[in-house]
Amino acid sequence: MDSNEKIIREAYRLAEGDVLDGDAFLALFTEDGSFNDMSTSQSFRGEQIPQAIAGLARSFPDVHRELLAVHAFGDVVAVELRIQGTHLGGFPTPAGEIPPTGNRIDVPAADFWYLRDGKIEKFVCYNLLSVWLDQIGVHPDFKSAVEAGGAAVTSA
Length: 156
Prior knowledge:
InterPro entries: NTF2-like_dom_sf (IPR032710), SnoaL-like (IPR037401)
Domain SnoaL-like: 14-121
Protein name: SnoaL-like domain-containing protein
Shape: globular
CATH architecture: Roll
Number of strands: 8
């Protein structure tokens, strides 16, 4: 197994709900390393990185990432995975916190890890937020969106 792949597998292990070691997770990153959550357009650096994984574990204390495929290409590691867990803690949103539902999630995702000299320089996470929200019981309000769209066209 490639040493970069080993580093990334260790990062996943450290972010598991039953392990959750934010300090050790952060230690795998370069000093200027970043964690970029593409589904929420958020970027985390430094001490924000362990806070991000701890925040997910507060919402899903049993969070687990099922790694479906791991491909190391030099200093890039691409991972297809599923993020799994039970919604047992509040889920933060810009509008407020969604209370725990007890629902299970099983969310498809793809992660890209960029390494430099054996450390993570950039972690880019793509997950299907629409699936995630649907599985915890947050369903889109299509009717309001359609009505708002119709009102905008009528008033233009």
